[in-house]
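Morning F.,

Quick status update on the modeling queue. The single chain you submitted on Monday has been processed. Sequence for confirmation:
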Amino acid sequence: AAHYSDIRPEISGVDFSLDAGRMFFAATDSFRLVEKIIDGKEFETDTQATNGIIPVKTINDLLRILPGDSEKTEL
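Structure tokens below.
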């Protein structure tokens, strides 16, 4: 749901939070709000807690280089 916008840069990223054994992502394009929570059983980490905003451009680059489904679409 994240959307790149020069006019509204605040919606040009995905909010990311890692704490207490879960990852939380939230994104919006000002019309939709999408949240994704990944339980700690699905990943391993040594990090205690962190949060930030990941730019849409960075996420699109990651989707292109990570192995997996060949029909990935950009955010």
